[in-house]
From TrEMBL:
Record GO terms (molecular function): metal ion binding
Name listed for the protein in its UniProt record: Iron(III) transport system substrate-binding protein
GO CC, alphabetical: outer membrane-bounded periplasmic space
SUPFAM superfamilies linked to this entry: Periplasmic binding protein-like II (SSF53850)
Lineage start: Bacteria, Pseudomonadati, Pseudomonadota, Alphaproteobacteria, Rhodobacterales
CDD domains found in the cross-reference section: PBP2_Fbp (cd13543)
Keywords: Iron, Metal-binding, Signal
Source species: Paracoccus laeviglucosivorans
Length: 326
């Protein structure tokens, strides 16, 4: 069995499938992280992969619009909300696929599979905000935070958070919070990274992001003036999310798509994702990145939300449009 190396991590050779067609992947995951994995998959299997990148919501909307005529064979999403919204368009996965995944991240319906986990966190300035941290995400609409908070309404994980807010507290409560944040002059940024950079540059003091972004900055600069924290235990702002993948039912390349999913769940690929992406591995036997809090801690502070129920993406997009955020 051959062994190749990806960024210092050995990947065991996988069974090569003779692919007559190119595997087409619609990806809501960024090329900087997954590009090396795609290349390694091609090298290990002999399957050519063509990747179309965009935001998770953009790719999900495109798949819905294209229907059975979509060229996509597989959708790799940044969050479970988009996966749930498209679950009826996905082929059933073998039961064994999800059996390898930790229960907290598992999709019991076997319509998609988690490829990594993450948490929502509050990032903040270590120079201007460390002594004035909110206990709840709802506190950020208070007057003392006026103009000091960043968010990214077009981000897929933020939209999954809003869906969870709607699910647990109702549409009226979610809309009231969005409106209150808008009225409090919350600053719009295009993504998670620009929020963190905005804090470091003194533009804002707080941001709402996924846990793995800050590590990309502190790894380069130990004195980077931004830190992250969670809200009080059980707050919806501590939502646990997953990235995951599903095979498009209309695909003619299901075997190749399944091979890609098997590759993503392999120990070596999981090790790469957590070490390079600072995300949680979804199977046992993987050494998590040192910057991650333990899953026990995450379980204690996270709200009780079944990520499999976060499928009403369109309802969330409508709410965000009504709030003037899209």
């Amino acid at each position: 069995m051959k062994t190749t190396v990806l960024s210092g991590i050995a990947l065991l050779g996988m069974t090569t499938i003779a692919a007559a067609d190119t595997l087409t992947i619609y990806s809501g995951r960024g090329e900087a992280l997954i590009g090396p994995l795609i290349q390694q998959f091609e090298a290990e299997t002999g399957i050519d992969a063509e990747v179309r990148y965009g935001s998770t919501s953009e790719m999900a909307t495109l798949l819905m619009e294209e229907g059975d005529a979509s060229p996509a064979d597989l959708f790799w999403a940044q969050d479970a909300g988009a996966l749930g919204a498209l679950s009826e368009r996905f082929a059933d996965l073998p039961a064994a696929t999800n059996e390898t995944v930790l229960e907290v991240f598992r999709n019991p319906a076997n319509k998609w599979v988690a490829t990594s986990g993450r948490t929502r966190v509050l990032v903040h300035s270590t120079e201007r905000a460390a002594e004035d941290l909110p206990q709840s995400i709802s506190d950020l609409s208070d007057e003392k935070y006026r103009g000091r908070v960043a968010w990214a309404p077009t981000n897929g994980s933020f939209q999954a958070f809003v869906t969870a807010f709607r699910l647990t507290q109702g549409d009226d409560a979610a809309k009231a919070w969005l409106d209150a944040m808008v009225a409090n002059d919350t600053k719009v940024y295009k993504n998670n990274g620009t929020q963190i950079e905005g804090i470091a540059n003194g533009e804002v003091d707080y941001g709402l992001v996924n846990n793995y972004y800050l590590g990309r900055y502190t790894a380069k600069d130990a004195e980077f003036p931004v830190a992250q924290t969670h809200f009080a235990a059980g707050d919806i702002g501590n939502l646990v999310l997953v990235a995951g993948a599903g095979i498009v039912e209309a695909s003619d390349n299901k075997d190749e798509a399944q091979a890609f999913i098997d590759f993503l769940l392999s120990p070596a690929a999981q090790q790469f994702i957590t070490l390079q992406g600072n995300e949680y591995p979804v199977r046992t036997g993987i050494i998590p990145a040192a910057t991650l809090e333990s899953l026990n801690t995450v379980s204690e502070i996270s709200p009780k939300v079944d990520t499999n129920t976060l499928g009403d993406l369109e309802g969330t997009l409508t709410l965000l449009r009504d709030a003037g955020l899209l």
